[in-house]
TrEMBL record:
Catalysed reaction, written as an equation: 3-deoxy-alpha-D-manno-oct-2-ulosonate + CTP = CMP-3-deoxy-beta-D-manno-octulosonate + diphosphate
Protein known as: 3-deoxy-manno-octulosonate cytidylyltransferase
Classification via SUPFAM superfamilies: Nucleotide-diphospho-sugar transferases
EC number: 2.7.7.38
Length: 260
């Protein structure tokens, strides 16, 4: 596959209930949505497009040199939004693999995007996603931390059996924190958005269960870090601090190279 076959789509909406205007939140002189687009481009796997219904988001993204696809405002999910954007920007159906990167992951390591996409190298896989082993005891029981449950294929890969807010699976062994980044085959995304919400999806409030209930295969790459998802003002402050530390580290490394 070439980079022309692959598209990174970043859905962005301004109507966050806990952090209104989230995509344009300032992170040290760069808006959150632009930071996510910048990190997505750094993965080097293909074209990056932000899918939004907001003119302010469009202006910020385009001024930073990234593409925008304008979509309807009434989408129920990011998956629906990126599917509309895909049809608008690729009517000739040249793109065969789509990565859905959430627009509120400003600390995302670009290598994680490639880790999800690489799962599609297996033709049996419909959707690729990510998880990291839980090391914080509080996360094991938190309903806010979604757990990926699967059968190990290798030490760094699971075939997903279930996703849940409960503590699962039972017994001794690792638990895995699901990271909501998805790589789709185009055919899988088309099938997914055409399906109605499934019973387990409605119960757990987890969209990916719709795919599993429909018999679609989801594989999970085990990675080492969980990017910070920004949902609250407190999360925003954490992201600002993390990015400031990153910038300071880069500056120190540059100065060290210059002196040597």
């Amino acid at each position: 596959m070439s980079s022309q076959d692959t598209l990174i789509l970043i859905p962005a909406r301004m109507a966050s209930t806990r952090l209104p205007g989230k995509p344009l939140a300032d992170l040290g002189g760069r808006s959150m949505i632009v930071e996510v687009a910048r990190r997505s481009a750094a993965a080097g796997i293909g074209r990056v497009v932000v899918a939004t219904d907001d003119a302010g988001v469009r202006a910020a993204v385009e001024s930073a040199g990234f593409e925008v696809a304008m979509t309807r405002a009434d989408h129920a999910s990011g998956s629906d939004r990126i599917f509309e954007a895909l049809g608008r920007i690729d009517p000739d159906r040249l793109v065969t693999r789509i990565v859905n990167v959430q627009g509120d992951l400003p600390t995302l390591d670009p290598s994680l995007i490639r880790a999800a996409l690489d799962l599609l190298d297996d033709p049996a896989v419909d959707i690729g996603t990510l998880a990291a082993e839980i090391t914080d005891a509080g996360e094991r029981t938190s309903p806010h931390v979604v757990k990926a449950v699967g059968s190990p294929i290798t030490t760094r890969r699971l075939r997903a059996l279930y996703f849940t807010r409960a503590t699962a699976p039972y017994g001794e062994g690792p638990l895995f924190h699901h990271i909501g980044l998805y790589a789709y085959r185009r055919s899988a995304l088309e099938r997914f958005v055409a399906l109605p919400p499934s019973p387990l999806e409605s119960r757990e409030k987890l969209e990916q269960l719709r795919a599993l209930e429909a018999g679609m295969r989801i594989d999970v790459a085990i990675v080492d870090t969980v990017p910070l998802g920004v949902d609250t003002p407190e999360d925003l402050e954490k992201a600002r601090a993390m990015l400031a530390r990153e910038a300071a580290s880069r500056q120190a490394a540059h100065e060290s190279r210059t002196l040597s």
